[in-house]
Design goal:
Residues 7-128 form the Alpha glucuronidase N-terminal domain. By secondary structure, the chain is an alpha/beta fold. The chain is built from 21 helices and 14 strands. It starts with 16 loop residues before the first helix and ends with a helix. The protein binds alpha-D-glucopyranuronic acid. Alpha-D-glucopyranuronic acid binds at residues 165-166, 207-208, 285, 289, 324, 363, 391.
């Protein structure tokens, strides 16, 4: 059946007869060296894909003895590839890159997938399959690809009891009770999906980490997962609880400057690497939202990160120290706190420490200005953290395609080294020379049969992985690619679904956070709750962020207000300090304005807010209509499941409009 399990690796028969014949002629056989596990999975994937797409079995042969063969390998493993003298091209694509070439070998036309290492061959194989799946040309190929970031990670916020923090697609994929004896066969499919995008690492437990994950019994289980992921080029990482030396180590302290504590972590690292020689390292959430950390001992974030980094260094591991901190004693404005805490530590971290920074300074809102830390830590490699799971974006009920949001972030100019210093270039180590580079995405996967709950949310996993490989890819191209691989190559279907996807983020912004109003939710982070006043913390409340009164609405973050704009470089700090030069989309993020404020559109602020809510709710209703227009043209099972989600989305969007308009009207038109 069509339950969405296959994701974008569906490999259903090519519908167009001429195209199917053409592809078959370009896939007469597979020439691949014996190689190891990675070569084996590359050949398996190619055979699986071609079998599905063409209906023919491409058999594996020892040499390119016929036209139309696909030749896989490295110069070291394949005499046929060595003879092509691709050294220069392969040098340029690096350790994980690859080239695809249409060439003649012994006067026969063949397609070559060549790389320096087998992992590049696997990535190149997925690229070739993608070309076939998306109706692209497979003749005259001359493709060279290399990833722009070294570490392309998923972060799973999975708890040891099988629940997933902010997960909306079922339970954890890791079955701790059955491991290590049994590894769910699904894990290999998880690895295939990730490798098809170029994802090469996974932090498998929540950043709100349970120290028990580091106990030997659990490390055996982690090692079993790592064994399944390894052939696909995916390394396992763990979130580490900073108090582990106390909670599971029996020490009296977890002070990072205590010699016994450092020794405990060194021994722990040795224990991990004995089981998992390619273990990636630790992600750490410290002194944030109640998690323990070095500040508990009056030490700095750098003291904590460096102690862990020293334990991992000899094994080649890294520390990803999260900058998601917002201690309210640092500054009254939450969005300023992480910058104030971390910029002063630049230059004090070990070489194998990343600081991992969310895209925005608040918390994964549907739109935020980029986090001012990007471009502000020239001596510390910053890893960007994106959230694929839709915590604040309709969870697994609303269709919100995140590629446009991520591109907006990656393309933002920080001006750190003059114009053109985009966030993408910062994390690529191109603005300041970083020794290592990376990106992390909080996964939206779970035990649901279709992995992501909402059928269209699969597109976000896909887009994240592809942007991690190349942050310059366009949302339009990614949506087109995903739809063709996942639904159909038929023009009208492609147009309908890509159009829906590409509108969805702005539509969601319109009905949840027009003009930069943000965090208008309660504890579920789903339903509208602009009146929310959280008794525990002001900055968990909605009213802290919108501050609506008869005088106006929004937070003044200009120089007259909290001066959050001062954390950005010129010309942004001047541009965003003045409502007249602040883009509408961020207006109430940075400013507090009267309801009668005159917008560029000529409307008052109040009318403009209402028009966004109205447009957003109408947009959501239009998605349901658009989806109905392709009923009967894609498989019914997946169509019906998405239709039900879109129906609920339209209802919820109208509820957002009604609730927020009524709430703000009390102040705007008392
Ligand atoms: C958000 C989210 C938490 C999560 C935290 C984090 O606040 O709601 O569930 O733990 O981010 O990123 O650490």
């Amino acid at each position: 059946g069509e339950d969405g399990y296959d994701l974008w690796l569906r490999y259903r028969p090519i519908v167009d007869e001429a195209r199917r014949v053409e592809i078959s002629a370009h896939a007469t056989a597979i020439v691949a060296p014996a190689g190891g596990e990675t070569m084996r999975v590359a050949v398996d994937e190619l055979q699986r894909g071609l079998r599905g797409l063409t209906g023919h079995e491409a058999s594996r042969v020892p040499a390119p003895d016929r036209g139309g063969a696909i030749v896989l390998g490295t110069p070291a493993s394949s005499p046929a590839i060595a003879a092509l003298r691709l050294e220069e091209a392969l040098k340029a694509v690096g350790d994980e890159g690859y080239v695809l070439r249409s060439v003649r070998v012994q006067d026969r036309p063949v397609t070559v997938v060549a790389a320096r290492h087998d992992i590049g061959v696997l990535y190149g194989t997925f690229h070739l399959l993608r070309l076939i799946q998306t109706s692209a040309s497979v003749t005259s190929l001359d493709v060279s690809e290399r990833p722009r970031l070294n570490r392309r990670l998923l972060n799973h916020w999975d708890n040891m009891d099988g629940s997933i923090e902010r997960g909306y697609a079922g339970r954890s994929l890791w079955n701790w009770a059955a491991l290590p004896a049994t590894v769910d066969s699904r894990i290999a499919d998880y690895a295939r999906a990730n490798a098809s995008l170029g994802i090469n690492g996974t932090v498998i437990n929540s950043v709100n980490a349970n120290a028990r994950t580091l106990q030997p019994e659990y490390l055996d289980k982690v090692a079993a997962i790592a064994r399944v992921l390894r052939p696909y080029g995916i390394r396992v990482y763990l979130s580490a609880n900073f108090s582990a030396p106390r909670t599971i180590g029996g020490l009296a302290t977890a002070d990072p400057l205590d010699a016994a504590v450092a020794a405990w972590w060194r021994a722990k690292a040795d224990e991990i690497y004995a089981r998992i020689p390619d273990f990636g390292g630790f992600a750490v959430k410290a002194n944030s939202e109640g998690q323990p950390g070095p500040q508990d001992y009056k030490r700095t974030h750098a003291d904590g990160a460096n102690m862990l980094a020293d334990a991992l260094a000899s094994h080649g591991g890294v520390v990803m120290w999260r900058a998601f901190v917002y201690d309210d004693s640092v500054d009254p404005d939450r969005v300023k706190r992480a910058y104030l805490e971390f910029t002063r530590l630049d230059g004090t971290f070990r070489d194998n420490v990343f600081v991992q920074v969310k895209n925005g300074a608040l918390d994964f809102q549907p739109r935020e200005p980029f986090h001012p830390l990007f471009g502000a830590m020239p001596k510390t490699p910053l890893m960007a953290e994106l959230q694929i799971t839709q915590e604040y974006l309709g969870q697994s009920t609303h269709a919100v395609y995140l590629a446009p949001m991520w591109r907006e972030f990656l393309a933002s100019d920080t001006f750190a080294a003059g114009p053109g210093s985009t966030v993408a270039r910062v994390i690529e180590g191109d603005v300041h020379p970083y020794a290592d580079t990376g990106i992390a995405g909080v996964a939206n996967t779970g035990s649901d049969r279709n992995w992501t709950g909402h059928g269209l949310a699969q597109a976000n996993w896909h887009a994240y992985g592809r942007l991690a490989w190349n942050p310059s890819l366009s949302p339009e191209g990614l949506a087109d690619e995903w739809v063709r691989m996942t639904w159909s190559n038929e023009a009208r279907i492609v147009a309908t679904i890509t159009d829906l996807l590409l509108r969805s983020r702005e539509t969601y912004v319109d009905y949840t956070m027009p003009l930069g109003l943000h965090h208008l939710i309660g504890g579920d982070h789903y339903a509208p709750m602009p009146e929310n006043a959280d008794p525990r913390r002001a900055d968990w409340s909605a009213i802290y962020y919108h501050r609506a009164s008869r005088d106006g609405v929004g937070v003044d973050r200009s120089r007259r207000g909290t001066d959050a704009v001062g954390q950005y470089r010129s010309p942004l700090r001047e541009r965003w300090a003045d409502p007249a030069t602040t883009p509408d989309a961020l207006l109430l993020w940075f400013h507090r304005l009267p309801w009668t404020y005159r917008m560029a559109s000529g409307r008052t602020l109040w009318d403009e807010i209402v028009s966004h809510y109205t447009r957003g709710a109408e947009g959501a209703a239009a998605f349901e209509q658009a989806w109905q227009s392709i009923a009967g043209q894609v498989d019914a099972e997946r169509h019906v499941a998405v239709a039900a989600k879109l129906h609920q989305q339209a209802i919820d969007a109208a509820a957002w409009r009604d609730k927020c308009v009524a709430y703000f009207r009390q102040f705007a038109q008392p």
